[in-house]
Write a structure and sequence with these properties.
heterotetramer; A: 10% strand; globular; B: alpha/beta; Rossmann fold; 5-stranded mixed sheet; binds thiamine diphosphate; binds magnesium ion
Chain lengths: 318, 327, 318, 327
């Protein structure tokens, strides 16, 4: 099997795992078992393509829409689901819920649901790495909406001035909660803001996992060699609503349909079949395996205990 | 009287004020999307979506308020107000004074908070005390649908910046709302239950917990008065003091953390100005000095519940039960 | 007398008034009579050139370094000095002091000393004008330092999206308190940030009052006709320290000397003599007149009463 | 013992901690310019100027603290912290909890405030109560040179975010500072004067006003105890309660506005846990619910002075003077 195909299949499996995870949470939410979440449905290629380009010693910061980043990094879906369900076995003991899951052991640190929080923290994380002579770069995922918060610019400016090796990844999914990007962002693309700071950047088709991956590898390489920031914009689309449940009544049907036709998983499946000659049933098997793993995860989460009431006031002070 | 949910009462207040006064407008992240009916009725200029940028949303409101408009902004969740603090505190709260009275800031900043949606500490933080502590700002946090409507209307008509908090857990709670023009003046508490033995003071969702506790206390022969503050600033000191001077006992209850919270202010007020009437120690029941947890079980434990209020009330009465040993 | 000369002489007189005002305050500060202030020495051309391009119905927002803007707009130096000295006759009854003097009657509104405060308020002021169908545009003065605060970008983005007729004037004086612009701002010029928002802009020599004035007239015209924002950057230099007293020990002597040689008042004096044939003693007379006005202003301020103690709690609530 | 000004004591603490622990670094607007000596000694990496951007300054500190460094940031003046609230409150204060204890935030955020420089309400706003009210954060506000040094050192060594306030008026005040390693533990109040009749609790510049008042009270036969809180969070509840239980009378004094201030917390504490020992009403003396004025005359009137403290103390003692009529 050639390398591209092997990699593509790995991407495919990871993307399915993410999709299955999100769909399971949607089902649990609809059944009244889980609270709402911000799903990453439609953005799997962005997450998988970028995270696969990172090294184990690299650090990641992410936001409210983090499931794909976490799973791409290898987080255990069982502990993630347990967290979403508020269980003691969750990555954060149930104190976080879905919106700010961090997994320090995997280098996914300081997840914040304050839009822009990740951008204010990333400079410090990168500074630590630099000053403590730790290997690796720091990657931060943020949305097009976050690029409208002033902190985005404060972060870029500081990273440029202090020469911080940060890979900024703007996931431009065309939506900022219930507002279309067009209505909230005067710039056509997030990446337009990089040049004035002297920060290199580019944008890439975010629904093509191989394109994302190639661009991310190149971007990460620039960050590693220059020890300076880089801004990669991943153009994609939020296929579900902002936060479950969301009927998407405010979404333009045609636009949605256009992007649904470019579902990153479907695009990759087509390519695997057409370019790499993978049989449809093989692909179906992969999907099945992912779903089974997620069913196990959900079972674990649902069987896990709630945190003890004493946990209410632990972990406040060090 | 029609019955409305709190969210409906809020919607009604906004629609009525937009209709009443051309200078009123509303904006925020998703405001136009979520209130498409108001956009249709009042035009895209008066009901606007904004970028994700709470600092400039609040600053724009302050600038507009000072120059002739009466903006209402939706800042969504209270923790997001951390981005708006300069505009609310340093600009809207202080520039009237700093300018020697040249400007006024008729604006309302709305935000949700409180346990109930398991959204965790970055969506749920009862930070109302910050604004009570800050000069030039009024603070409202109602508990009933009628008050949500009447106080929001009053807030929009007020010439000062008003921070208007919506306890998330109350959004779908129904209540009777008087027909027609219904304006509740800022700064007036409501006595929801008359009593002789102890005063329970609260606001937002824990008002109901106090009413439940009062019912339970009645079965034990204790007559509790329940005061819903409704407005946290200006605080209705008279109503609080009148009650405490009558009952001689005070329990203050809220979900916000205890330290320097509104409960501290009320307890201090009683210790200063109703000291002579006090018959027992003051009690505060409040959220712990901890961020709000997400997990439902913990989230509920964060909020003072009726049983704890009953215990606290009884503990102010050495005749009923012994006062707990002081450490 | 030709129009250019008449105008230049008017500029010259205004610039001298500003310089005399600042120098008097420095003297009072050194004598222990006044608190420190942020002087606009060296930046008179920027203020005079822009403000002269505005119409009476235009509105101005400014910041801590506002004396030049206020005086260029026609504020009474006596009431300004009274304010700085904390007197009841000050524009803000002594409650402001030097750092946030507003003069609503002159259209100088909502002055804030929070760096960036003016940028967060200007959008609302402009929105009022637009929605209330009031004539005129809104101008906001801010520093290169303010452009490093995230609020700068939030303001530009909103102004672009909401089509607000705002003239943004960045006074790039190379300093951000005790930090050189180079050390704090990755972009070479503030104006570089306008284009991504689709906002037109340009930069101009801020020590040449005629160049500033021409650029400001053109910029204001663009704002008036397009009813959209414009960013004008005025390149100048803070010739004195950040806040009196300040020994400028941290300032590069050569750079300072270079800019001192380009003192905007001296540049204009040279031009008036060389181009317009104005005699040196005529210019000296102008300067003398300005100083005399300022002496009167100081006398008024010093003779003014302190505010009554009851003022401590007035003007808090409306 | 050498005599240092408060500013010198702060400088010494920072220099010593930079020397002691490589992970300590300091940054902020003008920090490297103003501390060029430290740049020379410790390198440009550890003492840095920043852009004018308080949000990312504080966020960078939080991010760095969570990942191995121990940053000290200078936010200059307390009102500028309005730009840093997300980083301090939502990140540094909450992410330890939210993450289930995965991170800790050993960082110090310094800011100046208080009357004395006539700089007005956007440089002078005693907002320490905001941080006392917010979970996960410690708050320090010393009054003597020795404590500035010792508490700043302790704050830098603490594994939690500490907000460290410097009352501007104290900057040039001299005091003896012990030689050598001098660390004052967070959370311990200091009893500066022993007394029997009334407890005066304060912090920052008004501590001296309390000492002056105590001296005056002594001449009138009243023995006042003076407690300097030094740390506002964790609050030394024991020290306060022990004193109040002994004297039976409490006056709390601070410059910050009264509503929901630290004084409210202390008064409430006494009303709850020292009620049985109270012999008279509690008194709070605080700044008004107004922004700080610039004009020197007004600015001084903003701050509770010794004479008012004397009156307040006497008013807690009906035996000495009549209690003022309660409205
Ligand atoms: C400071 C802040 N404001 C508002 C919100 C509410 N909110 C959560 S996600 C979101 C949209 C974010 O848009 P974007 O950054 O593009 O990310 P996306 O959700 O599209 O992934 C909003 C408005 C928030 N969490 N934090
Ligand atoms: C939010 C905030 N941070 C810091 C300060 C302190 N400060 C006052 S002026 C100033 C420098 C501002 O630089 P710039 O915007 O370039 O204006 P300039 O002073 O050069 O005119 C600083 C840091 C402040 N007033 N507000
Ligand atoms: Mg988005
Ligand atoms: Mg500057």
């Amino acid at each position: 099997m050639n390398e591209a195909k092997t990699k593509a299949l790995a991407h495919f499996e990871r993307m399915h795992l993410i999709r299955a995870y999100e769909e399971k949470l949607v089902a649990l939410q609809q059944a009244g078992t889980a609270a709402g979440t911000c799903t990453s449905v439609g953005q799997e290629a962005a997450a998988v393509g970028v995270v696969a380009a990172l090294a184990p010693e690299d650090t990641i910061l992410t936001n409210h829409r983090s499931a794909a980043h976490l799973l791409a990094r290898g987080a255990n879906p069982a502990r993630m689901m347990a967290e979403v369900l508020g269980r003691a076995t969750g990555y954060c003991k149930g104190k976080s819920g879905s919106l700010h899951i961090s997994v320090k052991d995997l280098g996914v640190v300081l997840t914040s649901t304050i839009v822009g929080g990740e951008l204010s923290l990333v400079t410090g994380v990168s500074l630590s790495k630099t000053m403590l002579h730790e290997p690796g770069i720091t990657t931060v995922f943020f949305g097009d909406g976050a690029s409208c918060e002033g902190i985005f610019h404060e972060s870029l400016n500081l990273a440029a001035l202090w020469k911080l090796p940060i890979l900024y990844v703007a996931e431009n999914n065309q939506w900022q909660a219930f507002v279309h990007r067009r209505e909230a962002m005067a710039a056509e693309q997030v990446v337009a803001h990089a040049a004035p700071y002297g920060i290199p950047g580019r944008s890439v088709d975010g629904n093509d996992v191989e394109a994302v991956h190639a661009a991310a590898r190149q971007a990460a390489e620039v960050v590693r060699t220059t020890q300076r920031p880089y801004l990669l914009e991943v153009l994609t689309y939020r296929l579900r609503g902002h936060f479950e449940p969301d009927d998407q009544a405010y979404v333009d049907r045609e636009e949605l349909a256009r992007w649904q036709a470019r579902d990153p998983i479907r695009l990759l499946a087509d390519r695997l079949r057409e370019r790499d000659g993978v049989e449809a049933h093989e692909l179906a098997l992969v999907a099945e395996r992912a779903r089974a793993r997620i069913e196990d995860a959900a079972a674990f989460a649902l069987a896990s205990p709630m945190p003890d009431a004493a946990e209410l006031t632990t972990d406040v002070y060090a | 009287m029609p019955t409305l949910t709190v969210f409906e009462a809020i919607d009604a207040a906004i629609a009525e004020e937009l209709a009443r006064d051309e200078r009123v407008l509303m904006f925020g992240e998703g405001v136009a999307t979520k209130r498409a009916d108001l956009v249709a009725r009042f035009g895209a200029g008066r009901v606007r979506n904004t970028p994700l940028a709470e600092a400039v949303i609040a600053g724009t409101a302050a600038g507009a308020a000072a120059t002739g408009l009466r903006p209402v902004i939706d800042l969504l969740f209270a923790p997001f107000m951390t981005y708006s603090m300069d505009a609310i505190v340093n600009s809207a709260g202080k520039l009237r004074y700093i300018s020697g009275g040249q400007f006024r800031f008729p604006m309302v900043a709305m935000a949700m908070t409180g346990a109930g949606w398991t959204v965790g500490a970055q969506h749920n933080h009862n930070n109302e005390a910050w604004f009570v502590h800050s000069p030039g700002i009024k603070v409202v946090m109602p508990s009933t649908a009628a008050d949500f409507k009447g106080l929001l209307k009053a807030a929009i008509r007020d010439d000062n910046p008003v921070v208007f908090f919506v306890d998330m857990a109350l959004g779908h709670v129904r209540g009777e709302v008087p027909d027609g023009e219904h304006v509740v003046p800022l700064g007036k508490a409501a006595v929801l239950r008359r009593g002789r033995d102890v005063t329970l003071v609260s606001y937002a969702k824990t008002v109901q917990h106090c009413l439940d506790a009062a019912a339970e206390l009645a079965t034990r022969g204790v007559s509790a008065e329940v005061i819903d503050l409704r407005t946290l600033k200006p605080l209705d000191e008279e109503a609080i003091l009148a009650s405490v001077r009558r009952t001689g006992r005070l329990v203050v209850v809220h979900e916000a953390s205890k330290l320097c919270g509104v409960g501290a202010e009320i307890a201090a007020l009683a210790g200063e100005q109703a000291y002579a009437a006090l018959k027992g120690p003051i009690r505060r029941l409040a959220g712990p000095d901890a961020p709000a947890p997400s997990s439902h079980a913990l989230e509920q434990a964060f909020v003072p519940q009726a049983a704890a209020i009953v215990d606290a009330a009884l503990s102010t009465m050495p005749s009923v039960v012994a006062e707990p040993a002081l450490s």
